[in-house]
Design brief:
Distance between the termini: 64 Å
Strand order of the largest sheet: 1-5-6-8-9
Number of strands: 10
Number of helices: 1
Order of helices and strands: HEEEEEEEEEE
Structural class: mainly beta
Strand content: over 45%
Amino acid sequence: MLTTEICVIMLFAAAAVIAYAVRPSSSGPARQHLLAGTLSHEGPDDSSLDIDCRDDGTVTIWRNGLTGLTSDDAVSLAINIRGFDIEINERIHRGNISTTASTDIDSACFTIDFLACELYHITYKIDGTVAAAFTMHVRHGMHRHVALTR
């Protein structure tokens, strides 16, 4: 026979399990942003990211080490944000081959103006494969160099 105390304890345990099961997700809705990169030939040769946070809170990402691109090509980022988790998918679009296209493109610059001053967990993917995973605290003067793997 169960005592009253044991029945009350079991009731509270069942209520805690139910409350945990029905609680809402804390990460909020997912958002996606698409960014076009500005191509240049000023970056280093290593496959990496250089990330800087400006005084106004915007974040600049330099994607270095791009090969085989011309000025007719394009590099873009699909940025998926869910709470403080960010997944960045790099996309390279090949343009028309023209005789006037510059062939010394090795980097692309992206400007992000929609992040708050928080700590983010970032996954950077190239062709669906994780090239880097890191944390980034968006704050004035922040600089980060991240090597990419294939």
